[in-house]
Amino acid sequence: MQSFDKRLPLAWLLGIPFSYFAVSYLENFYTTAFQVALSTIIVHSLVNLLVYYLLGRAISEFRSNRVNTGIMTILFAGLTVFIPAMYNMAKPFSNLFDASAFHLDASVRISFVNALIPAFFIAMVILYVAKQRSWKESLLFKFVDENLEGLLIALLFFCIYLLFASIFNRPSFNEDDIFFDADSRLYRWRFATENYRDYYWRPAHPFILIIVRPLVGIIAFLFRGDTLFAAFTLNALTAALCVFLVWYFVKHSIGNPLYAALISALFGASATQLVFGSVVESYIYLSAVALIFLVLLLKDSPLWAQVLTGLAAFGITISNVGQTFIAHFFVRRNIKQVIIYGLLIGLFTVPLSLLNNYLYPDSQPYFWDLSLLKGEGHNQFPVTLQRADYLARVMVLHSFVAPEPLTIDDEFVFTKVWMFRASIKKEPMRLANYETPLGDGLVIVWAGLLLLGSVFFFKNIVKQYDGYSIAFIVTLLFYFILHLQYGKDAFLYAANWTYAITLFLALAWRDMAEKRWFQVLLLVFVLLLFMNNAGLLKTMLEVAAPTVQVPVWR
Questions:
Q1: Helices (H), 462-493
Q2: Are 20 and 104 in contact (CB under 8 A)?
Q3: What are the Cα distances from residue 427, in Å, to 307, 388, 423?
Q4: What mean pLDDT value characterizes the chain?
Q5: What's the CA gap between 235 and 317, in Å, rounded?
Q6: Using CA atoms, how far apart are residues 312 and 443, in angstroms rounded to an integer?
C-alpha cells in the first residue's frame, strides 16, 4: 500500500496531459459540460491506471537492466516530445490546421478540471478490486504486459499521424493528385460520404468498400455520426497498427523487445508512414493486411485466417494478393497448401465482389471486366534505365529518408508535392533530391545500414534458410518490375514495400540486436530521421497553405 500511495497520485498528475488530448478530441463530438465531464472521468480513470502500471513497470525494468531501460526511456521521451513539436510546427498554418480540434473550449475547461478528482478515486477503487481478484491473470493484462513497448510506440505514432490527418484530409483539398499523386479526395468521398462511386471507374479495387466503410461506420458511431473525422482517425489507427505489427513480428522473431522497439520506431518515422498514415488513401490498409498475414504465418495460424487476410488484400487492390502468395510459398514451402490457399481465394472473390456492388450499387466495375484496364494506359510508361534508377532510389532511400520533395505547378488548382514524376507530356522525368546537411548525412548512414544488412543476409543465408527474408526480396522485385512501367509517382506505392525492407533489415541485423553500439546507433538514427522527415510534412504545409483560404471545420 505504501508503494500504491506514492504511485497513484503521481500517475494521476502525469496522466493529465494525455487525458486532456483525448478529451479535447472527443469534445468535437461530445460538446456539453456534462459530456466533457463524463468523458474526462472515463478517460482519466483509465489513463491513471495505465500510468500507474507504467511507473511500476519502469521501476522493475530499471532494476533489472538499467541500460536497456535508459535507451527505451530516451526513445519514448523523444517520440513524446515530437507530438507537441509537430503541433507547434502546424499551428502557424491556421487556414490548414484547426488547433481547436485538439483543445477544450473555454466554456468546458472547468468541467474537465473538476472531473479529474472523481477519476482519481474511481481509479483507486478499480485498482483495489483488480488486486483482490488477481488482475495480473486476466487476458487483458497479459496482452498489455507482453506487448507494452509495441503498444506505446504505436500509440505515440497514432497521435502524430492523427494530427496531420486532420490537416491533409480537409474538404477544401477538393482535387486528387495533390500529394504524391494520391487519390485522397476520391477515398475521402468513398469512405466517408454517400458519394462512394469510383469516378475513375477502375476494376482494381473489387470490394474495398465492404472492408473499410464498416470500420469507418463503427468509429463514426462513437463520433456521433461524423464520418469525416472517423475516416481520418481510422487511417491514423491503421498506420499505428502497422507500427505495432512490425514490433510484434520483430519481437517474436528475434526475442528482443528493445530491438523490436527501435525497428518499429524506424518504420513509424519513415517518410512512407508519416505521409500515408496521414493522407487518406488505400495503401495504408494494404500495408496493414500484408503485416497481418506475416504475423499469421509467424504464429502458424489456421488456413481460414490466412484466407480471410488474403481476400482483404485482393479486395483492396487485386495485385496485392500477390504479396500473400509470395510469403506463403517461401515461408511454408508447401505447394499443396499454396494451391489450396489460391483455390479458396478464387472461390470467394466473385461472391464478395457481387456483395460489394449489391450493398453499394454502381460503386465500381467488376474485376473480371478486363476491358476497363485499358483506362490505366495514362499510368503506363516505357521501361528505361533512368526510370529503373529513379524507382530504385525511391524504394530504398526516399521511402525512409525524405528528400526535399518536388513542387509541381502545372496550371493545376493546387501546387503538387511529389517525390518522383514520370515523363509526362514530353516533360523530363524528375526526382526529388537531398538538399540539407541532415538529409545528406542520414541518407549516407541509411545506405551504409542497407549495405550492412545485405552483407549479413548473404552471410547467414548460406548457413540457414530464411523464408521470410527471401519473401521480402521477392516482394521488392515484384513491385520493382510492376512499377518499372506503372505509376506517375512511384512513392504513392511505397506502403507496399517499406514494411518489407524494414523487416528484411531487422532479420538481417539480428546478429547485432544485442550490441549496445548498434542499439545506440539505431536510437540516434531514428530520432534524427523523425526530425528530417518532419521537414517533408512542413513542406507539404508550406506549399498547400497559399491555395487554401476557406475557414477550418469544427
A1: 467-483
A2: yes
A3: 44, 18, 5
A4: 91
A5: 17
A6: 35
